[in-house]
Design brief:
The protein is mainly β and 443 residues long. It has helices at residues 37-54, 174-178, 322-326; strands spanning 17-20, 64-69, 74-82, 86-91, 94-99, 103-108, 119-123, 128-131, 133-136, 140-145, 148-153, 157-162, 187-192, 197-207, 211-216, 219-224, 228-232, 252-256, 259-263, 266-268, 272-275, 279-282, 286-290, 296-298, 306-309, 329-331, 341-344, 348-353, 360-367, 376-383, 386-394, 406-411, 417-424, 434-442. Helix content is 6%, strand content 44%.
Length: 443
């Protein structure tokens, strides 16, 4: 969607201002001068030349990688190149190619130290990346980082937040982003401070080293960047990318130094990282590439194909409300665990249909309720009619790692259905509910 200019047709009754907190000042008071064009172009040109000259600092050095494959195997070596066909590494002087469809995770063995950037760029898909500065005068935004220069199409950017002294340390711009109006009709310029900010409706035209150019009431106006703490573009929600067969395109989680992005296509070398053909970043910025993140079918919130629940009090389970209470339920991160999960109580059997490309089922299991849990239960995992996992889980256990969760990592390739059963261990034990953390089928 193109950003509309704030004319009387796009903004009935003239431009409107939204204030947070109440009160404020005219945008005209933020203007630093009328004669600005030549100076702006000269300064921006000098900045651009500096970025180009310093864009490849540190590039070209070998990147030592650890590779985890879908069959559970691992490999290591230095990066040669990554494209749509495979990952090429140098292992002890021998070049080796690893097919992409067998790669689960790639991570740097010695990732660079993460430092907070002065500016955070948020994309329309929820991704984000930080840098020291940025510039934009056209279709591509240039992000200046300590490791080099990045380029991002401005149409993919939702907002820009400059880090303030009173910002949340982890999420710059969080205060004004949470205060955005429910509906907006134009771009927004955010001025003031994180605790006392104002939203100004306008059309953003360019970002230079000293000013941000906007269109307000059909007048082009430069605003001092020192007054601006953020920009929010008017954007439509991105359409879901789909492949030739009509399926959503799986995306890879791309963890960077100061960033977390997602991409369907990746080309990577020590010099350059290219995402989806149009986001370009320094190759040295990569920390981790996680294909499993885009190849998973989570069981959380997914209705089973078949569900049988028979609690210890038997026929009382037919009472309305009790049956739904004892059925599997989703729990959020922080509700007794660091990640989302699924709580299943004893005598429950749930069956999910596996995707045709399903390879492995992964989860961790532990007593739900932590230290308040009592009793024990038995967990069984089936693929069709084949048992692939069985374990007794006690509320009080001396087994190493039981507090963090017992891992489940089983092969489901070729199966049609995944069955999970939680049952009592004896007639005298009421059992304990089991929390399945991050239960998902990897494809």
């Amino acid at each position: 969607m193109q950003t509309p200019s704030p004319t009387t047709s796009s903004l009935p009754g003239g431009p409107r201002f939204r204030w947070s907190p109440p009160g404020g000042r005219s945008l005209r008071s933020l203007v630093w001068g009328a004669v600005w064009g030549a100076v702006w172009r000269a300064v921006w040109g000098a900045l651009w030349m500096g970025v180009v000259a310093g864009g490849n600092v540190g590039a070209g050095e070998p990147l030592s990688l650890r590779i985890e494959q879908t069959d559970g195997g691992t490999a290591s070596g230095t990066l040669v190149a990554l494209d749509g066909a495979g990952l090429r590494i140098d292992a002890a002087g021998q070049e080796r190619s690893v097919p992409i469809d067998t790669v689960r995770l790639v991570e740097r063995e010695s990732p660079p130290r993460t430092t907070a950037g002065r500016v955070r760029v948020a994309l329309v898909d929820g991704s984000w990346i930080e840098g020291d500065d940025l510039a934009w005068d056209g279709t591509v935004l240039t992000l200046i980082r300590p490791d080099g220069r990045g380029e991002i199409p401005v149409a993919k950017i939702r907002s820009v937040a400059w880090r303030q002294a009173d910002d949340d340390a982890q999420t710059p711009g969080g205060a004004w982003l949470s205060a955005l109006p429910e509906t907006i009709e134009s771009d927004l310029l955010v001025v003031g401070t994180a605790s006392a900010h104002e939203f100004v409706e306008c059309a953003i035209k360019s970002v230079g080293p000293e000013s941000i150019t906007v269109v307000l009431d059909e007048e082009t106006i430069p605003v001092r960047r020192s007054k601006v703490i953020g920009i929010h573009w008017l954007r439509g929600d991105p359409a879901t990318k789909r492949g030739g067969g009509g399926k959503p395109v799986a995306s890879v989680a791309v963890d960077l130094v100061g960033g977390a992005l997602r991409a369907g296509q990746i080309v990577w070398s020590a010099e350059k990282l290219l995402l989806d053909g149009d986001i370009s970043l320094p190759g040295d910025a990569v920390v981790r590439l996680d294909w499993a993140a885009g190849r998973t079918m989570s069981l959380i919130g997914l209705a089973p194909e078949r569900l049988d629940v028979e609690p210890w009090f038997g026929e009382l389970a037919r009472v309305p409300g009790l049956a739904s209470y004892f059925a599997p339920r989703a729990v959020a991160a922080g509700d007794g665990g660091a990640r989302p999960g699924l709580v299943i109580r004893p005598r429950t059997q749930a069956v999910w249909r596996l995707p045709p490309e399903g390879r492995r089922f992964r989860a961790t299991i532990a007593p739900a309720g932590g230290g308040r849990a009592v009793g024990g239960s038995e967990v069984v995992v089936m693929v069709d009619d084949r048992e692939v996992f069985r374990r007794r889980v006690d509320a009080v256990s001396s087994e190493p790692g039981a507090a963090e969760g017992i891992p489940i990592d089983v092969d489901v390739a070729g199966g049609r259905r995944l069955g999970v059963t939680v049952d009592f261990v004896s007639a005298s034990d009421a059992g304990c509910p089991i929390r399945f953390t991050s239960p998902a089928v990897e494809q």
